[in-house]
Write a structure and sequence with these properties.
With 485 residues, the protein is α/β, with parallel strands linked by helices. It has helices at 7-13, 103-112, 153-159, 169-175, 182-190, 197-205, 211-217, 228-231, 278-284, 321-337, 355-358, 362-369, 390-396, 398-407, 420-437, 441-453, 474-482, and strands at residues 29-31, 54-66, 76-83, 94-97, 123-125, 238-241, 256-263, 266-268, 274-276, 291-297, 312-315, 346-352, 374-380, 411-417, 457-462. α15 (420-437) crosses α16. The chain is globular, with a radius of gyration of 25 Å.
Length: 485
């Protein structure tokens, strides 16, 4: 029997003419008679693989507060979760949240594919080869709110399959098998042809057109429900840098506390259609007390307590402030717990559009500046005629930056979205070393590279703010357990 991810299966499905090739694999999704408990779903407690660097958690939402004004163009939230598990984390670590598809989208998908009659039947996966007893296959996580042991097609769509993903070329190849409309079939197969890669980009990636929208436009496609998990991609978790640190990592009752700074993804594309991030939309609508699945994983900043005496420069525009806030609170905790050691100066360079709209946690900075050696420099790009960014403020504070990083061998952390910001910050630091050290560009670049080798220059940037590739894919574990390749 063929399996998801089987190379021969993929080859057969992508036959050039899109017709039946007589060798399609069997679908691995089946109905069951009665209420059958799906293997691996009988436990609500997440299982953590032995020796793993990430931890599956069940977290409870304690706070969901909008930080930006209601009339501001961007909705940014402060989210706080609690967890009964006694886990520790460090600045730079990330929490991956498993989202859910909206009920409206799920209902549309069921109606569009004529799956309503099967939507609430108990279903199961059948393995296509024996699972070795020596292999560790983590049990898939359970949607805790439902406490469900019975898997249905509706639950598969809501919790496990991504119907709002931008489709890949292979998706068009597969769904071309499930339409009898010759015009639709021809157009679908054009998208699989490498010579039409620009057309595929213009149709999918550029307008961020989703799988659900594609199926609505190619309405003749009727995917057999048994093929749902083969055709639709897995719903992935989204990573968020943790914004809490020090004493804010634990509650007085002994519970673990996680705080996130999340920009709700909502924008319009070139076709003027509103787009929303699946996970951030889910988070924005969560009610206090809701329990969700999450995964904690170590980040790449590798911050150590032994660095407490060294000065630190942190550069975190926008929601890149989250790990910087975590580090500031962590250093404050070190300051309180190490009275014999002088805490190195802590300097934050923060950039946003408007001081009144998105200068996050400014009251905290006022409080902490009275308790620890903390300086905060800001760049508000839209509050004056000439735009100003963090790299501009770095140059303005060149003497301070040079003293902390060169003379006192301090550390620098850069966090935020990728693109021009990290390069602009690096160029600004090179200018600082050239102007204050009276050196040329070659020496400045060599010094930055030396800082990187010594672990004194670290950056963590993402392709999209607060919306990062997953670290623990629930459906991948799910498929591995049920359908080993």
């Amino acid at each position: 029997m063929g399996t998801v991810g089987n190379q021969s299966t993929a080859t057969n499905l992508e036959s050039p003419d899109g017709g039946d090739n007589g060798n399609q694999p069997e679908a691995n999704l089946h109905t069951t008679n009665g209420d059958t408990i799906v293997p691996g779903l009988e436990h609500a407690t997440p299982v953590n693989p032995p020796g793993s660097d990430h931890y599956n958690l069940l977290v409870r939402l304690e706070e969901n507060r909008r930080l930006t004004p209601s009339d501001h163009w961007q909705d940014v939230r402060h989210l706080r979760f609690s967890c009964t598990s006694p886990v520790d984390y460090a600045p730079g670590d990330v929490l991956t949240v498993m989202p859910e598809n909206s009920t409206i989208d799920v209902d549309q998908m069921l109606e569009l594919m004529d799956w309503n009659q099967h939507a609430d039947q108990a279903i199961r996966f059948e393995p296509t080869s024996n699972v070795l007893e020596t292999d560790f296959y983590p049990r898939p996580l359970v949607t805790v709110n439902q406490q469900c042991t019975i898997l249905t097609l509706r639950k598969l769509l809501k919790y496990h399959l991504d119907i709002r993903a931008v489709p890949r070329r292979s998706f068009f190849s597969m769904v071309a098998h499930f339409t009898n409309d010759k015009m639709h079939k021809g157009r679908l197969l054009e998208f699989t042809d490498p010579q039409y890669v620009d057309e595929l980009y213009d149709y999918t990636t550029r307008p961020r057109r989703s799988i659900l929208e594609v199926l609505q436009e190619f309405h003749s496609i009727k995917i057999p429900w048994e093929w749902a998990a083969n055709v639709l991609p897995e719903l992935r978790g989204r990573q968020f840098s943790i914004a809490s640190g020090g004493s804010r990592k634990h509650l007085s009752e002994g519970q673990t506390n996680f705080e996130l700074l999340v920009a709700i993804v909502k924008y319009k594309t070139v076709i003027k259609t509103l787009r929303e991030g699946v996970c951030t939309r889910y988070l924005a609508g969560l009610s206090i007390g809701t329990t969700v699945e999450a995964t904690l994983q170590k980040g790449g900043l590798n911050i150590r307590k032994s660095e407490a005496a060294q000065p630190v420069i942190m550069i975190g525009p926008g929601t890149g402030l989250a790990p910087m806030r975590s580090l500031i609170w962590e250093r404050y905790q070190w300051y309180l717990s190490m009275p014999g050691i002088a805490l190195g100066e802590t300097v934050l360079f923060y950039g946003c559009r408007n001081q009144e709209a998105d200068f996050f946690y400014r009251e905290e900075w006022k409080l902490l500046k009275e308790k620890m050696p903390l300086r905060v420099f800001t760049a508000f790009s839209r509050d004056q005629k000439a735009k100003q960014y963090v790299q501009d403020v770095l140059r303005q504070q060149a003497r301070l930056v040079y003293d902390l990083l060169h003379s006192r061998r301090g550390l620098v952390y850069v966090c935020g979205s990728s693109g021009s910001m990290p390069k602009a910050v690096r160029a600004a630091l090179a200018d600082v070393f050239k102007s204050c050290g009276d050196t040329d560009e070659s020496f400045a670049e060599d010094y930055l590279q030396t800082m990187e080798r010594e672990g004194r220059y670290k950056q963590e940037v993402s392709d999209f703010p607060s919306y990062i590739a997953p670290i623990a894919l629930r459906i991948r574990k799910f498929r591995t357990f049920f359908i080993p390749v």
